[in-house]
């Protein structure tokens, strides 16, 4: 039976030495990926909204608000810095049959606490490993999407467990922190259904903030409901239903995490890669396209294909990166899908708006079975005005766990996100520090983000 005691004991047992070479390497890749994306989001309007809010309520402290030169509390830093990691929708994802959370939602919270506590890079990796293992196990064994809860309901538990570990809480304190976080901060799925707005990209930052706040409360002596999961009207009864986690101190769930090649929702990655390849290989003129048909799996059709709201009415960035019709249309027109694909000018182009109305998304049971077996399948047909139909079929994409990105791939992605802010020498220092993080202090790394 999964309990707060089990989670707390697991976190206290994970050490840098318990992690294999491949696990350490993948954690470093996720760290670099998260930092690059965060830098790329520093000038976003929504990031500025969160920053101004944090500035209003937060005082001075030991944790950096990345890119600002300012120090604040770990709670405020978790809120703002997680917004940077998450907002562009370019972050990593854990692929489970019933849930697809983003474990990198934990990174900024753990970094903030580790920075405040003066942790080493090796200790940071151990705490990040805890976050990825807990998030992955919850997604696999206790999906909540179908019961009306948002996936950041998992994040507040994983982030509290990992941040509490980084804070150095003892087992009982950590149980209290998890109990507070998991009882008080459960998020509704309405965030990602119907009309999508900017909260979609900030909900995980709120969860990270709440997790760190719960950790600080527990460290100051606040007791929490340690029967969070199994208690009467507790998490299992109300949120998830019965489940059991299989937590492993080797923390290999990070190996099942994908990284994004395109700035697009997770379930769109294979389809977008396919249509980009098709457009280039066949030299398709988008003005001649009469219809785009996507056959996909249940989750993609439900979340970004129209099952949870109209995905053809696209006016904003938040709607665009949650719409298969928009993402496929923009990718076909531009031959790419980047940050610039979500500017108002790009979204409202007549050609893209016309094309997205031709897109149909069809759920296929066979593809759903393949997805649940570990693939991310997509079949895209593009019909043009002379009757020709071009087809591409994909089982995965560059960045899927079966086709993981190399260090070279991730460094290139990092450079694409950070070139406007840092010169080559500074970018190289960040990359080198992350790759050798066990030989550095956490403070060495975050100091490079000013």
From TrEMBL:
Gene3D superfamilies: 2-methylcitrate dehydratase PrpD (1.10.4100.10). Residues 262-433 form the MmgE/PrpD C-terminal domain. Signal peptide: none annotated. Residues 6-246 form the MmgE/PrpD N-terminal domain. Pfam families: MmgE_PrpD_C, MmgE_PrpD_N. Belongs to the PrpD family. This is MmgE/PrpD family protein.
């Amino acid at each position: 039976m999964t309990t707060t005691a089990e989670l707390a004991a697991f976190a206290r047992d994970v050490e840098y030495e318990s992690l294999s070479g491949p696990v350490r390497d993948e954690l470093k890749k996720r760290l670099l990926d998260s930092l690059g994306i965060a830098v790329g989001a520093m000038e976003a309007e929504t990031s500025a909204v969160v920053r101004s809010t944090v500035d209003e309520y937060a005082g001075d402290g030991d944790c950096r608000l990345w890119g600002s030169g300012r120090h604040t509390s770990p709670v405020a830093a978790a809120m703002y810095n997680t917004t940077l990691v998450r907002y562009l929708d370019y972050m990593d994802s854990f692929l489970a049959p019933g849930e697809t959370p983003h474990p990198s939602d934990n990174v900024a919270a753990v970094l903030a606490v580790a920075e405040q506590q003066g942790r080493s890079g090796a200790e940071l990796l151990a705490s990040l490993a805890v976050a990825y293992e807990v998030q992955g196990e919850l997604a696999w064994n206790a999906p909540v999407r179908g019961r009306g809860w948002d996936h950041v309901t998992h994040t507040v538990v994983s982030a509290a467990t990992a941040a509490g570990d980084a804070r150095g809480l003892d087992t009982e304190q950590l149980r209290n922190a998890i109990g507070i976080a998991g009882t008080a901060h459960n998020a509704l799925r309405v965030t990602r259904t119907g009309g999508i707005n900017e909260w979609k990209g900030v909900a995980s930052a709120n969860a990270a903030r709440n997790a760190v706040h719960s950790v600080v409360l527990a460290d100051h002596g606040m007791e929490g409901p340690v029967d969070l999961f199994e208690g009467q009207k507790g998490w299992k009864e109300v949120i998830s239903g019965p489940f059991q986690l299989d937590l492993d101190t080797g923390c290999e769930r990070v190996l099942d995490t994908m990284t994004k090649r395109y700035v697009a929702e997770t379930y769109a990655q294979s389809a977008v890669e396919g249509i980009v390849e098709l457009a280039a290989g066949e030299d398709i003129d988008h003005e001649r396209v009469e219809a785009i048909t996507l056959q996909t799996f249940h989750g993609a059709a439900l979340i970004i294909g129209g099952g949870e709201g109209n995905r053809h009415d696209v006016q904003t960035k938040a709607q665009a990166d949650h719409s298969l019709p928009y993402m496929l249309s923009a990718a076909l027109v531009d031959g790419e899908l980047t940050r610039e694909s979500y500017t108002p000018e790009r979204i409202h182009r007549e050609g893209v708006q016309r094309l997205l109305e031709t897109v149909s998304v069809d759920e296929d049971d066979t593809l759903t079975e393949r997805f649940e077996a570990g693939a991310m399948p997509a079949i895209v047909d593009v019909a043009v005005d002379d009757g020709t139909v071009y087809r591409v079929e994909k089982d995965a994409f560059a960045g899927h766990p079966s086709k993981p990105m190399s260090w070279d791939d991730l460094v290139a992605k990092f450079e694409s996100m950070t070139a406007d802010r840092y010169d080559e020498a500074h970018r190289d220092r960040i990359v080198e520090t992350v790759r050798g993080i066990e030989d550095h202090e956490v403070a060495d790394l975050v100091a490079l983000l000013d």
